[in-house]
Amino acid sequence: MPQKYYVYISLSLVAITLGFLMAVQFRVSGDYNIGIPRENTQELSQELKQLKSNNKNLQAELSDLKIKLKQVNAGQAQAVQALKSELKKGRMAAGMVTVTGPGVEVILDNPKSSEHSQSNTLFIIRDQDLLKVINELRGAGAEALSINGERIIATSEVRYAGSFINVNTKRIVPPYQVLAVGDPQALEHALAIPGGLRDYLGNLGIKVKIKKHEELTVPAYFKENNFKYAKSM
Q1: Is residue 196 one of the residues assigned to a domain?
Q2: What is the CATH number of the domain that holds 137?
Q3: CB 100 within 8 A of CB 202
């Protein structure tokens, strides 16, 4: 067989081989280009769009909840502060805390034995004399009162017990020191007005001294109040 035929046959085989390889490559490339079907792409795109919308709504809801939580915490703090303030006012009104402020100091003392006979009880300070001083000071606007270190509250008693005076069940002896927190000028005027309580007690021989203070301290009532019969409604 002539040599040129071998060349033709060789070229033909090469051409056939190349054609086969190109066909296979085109088939594979076609498969890659197909990828995800168009229907699936649209479905995934719609799901992604929905997820983004849901995420946006959740973010907005989260922000709203954070604002509401902040408001609740602020409101709770304000409520606690208001309760503490009311409790403090209640304790002050009940005399359960030590208070300081301007006011007056009133000293009541019995007359000396050389001036009046101690056997004559007319010239001895009585419980009712102390009560008159307390009531006069309260009427003049006293906000806190004490007698010889005993805080006067709503349940305090000032009464005779034998030859002594008891305040809050504690025995006290003269001289009696009454402290009152309030307007010093008004408190002094209530006692020292001409013909008033100071003159009345002085006529009985009782020594009365009234001194104004820019600041004095009235102690708290430390005893515990137990209610056995009284019940809140």
Answers
A1: yes
A2: 3.30.70.1880
A3: no
**Cβ burial, residue 165 (10 Å; 0-12/13-18/19+):** buried
- Dist. CA 190–CA 140, nearest whole Å: 6
65, part of any domain: no
Which band of pLDDT confidence, cut at 50, 70 and 90, is reported for residue 35? low
The tally of domains found in the chain comes to 1
- 164 has which bridge partners? 161
* Alpha-helical regions (H) of 94-146: 127-139
* 61-68 average pLDDT score: 84
Neighbouring-strand partners of residue 108? 176, 208
Give the global pTM.
0.65
Task: Name the maximum alpha-carbon separation found in the chain.
Answer: 173
pLDDT digits (tens, 9 = 90+) for 94-112: 889 999 999 999 999 987 7
CA–CA dist 65, 70 (Å, integer): 8
- Residue 226 located in a structural domain: no
Query: Taking a C-beta distance cutoff of 8 angstroms, is the pair 186, 141 a contact?
Result: yes
Specify the pLDDT at position 94: 85
Cα–Cα distance measured from residue 233 to residue 223, given in angstroms and rounded to the nearest whole number: 24
DSSP state of 110: P
Per DSSP, the three-state class of 116 is coil
List the end-to-end C-alpha distance of the chain, in Å, as a whole number: 131
